[in-house]
Amino acid sequence: MSSKEYVKMLSDSLDKKVELLRQLQGLNQEQKNILEDSESTPDMLDDNIEKKSDVIERLDKMDEGFQSLYDKVKDDLSSKREEYASEIKHMQEQIALVTDLSTDVQAKEMQNRELARAKFSHIRSQIRETKHGQKAVASYYASMMNNTGYEDSQFWDKKK
Known about the structure:
Layout: H1 3-36, H2 42-79, H3 85-146
């Protein structure tokens, strides 16, 4: 395979990476909506996390492939800089876009992590309140069952 074909593959790889990062941005927004929605279910969040995991896995594989391709053509790119000037410029623009998208994705991930912490904290406090309420009801019920208002039978002996 020629260096030109490898360079084209590098460029295509960067295009696909941009596309995957945009998908990840959309999934982050979806996750934010799920975390902010009081009607959302844990299954909805789990599905979203699974989709994000798949995209991240694909990104990791693309990074590995990109690196191995780059290793094959980096000498040619350096020695024939003028010949590949337009491709290099295009890839530099793509890399800048990938960097911006990656930074945005990381920032949104941090925001979603804080939203998740807040939501889970709220859920834990609701569980505590429910348990406390259940204990109070059980205690009240037990005390009512033990205290029926009747005293034990008593026999009076009238003989002296």
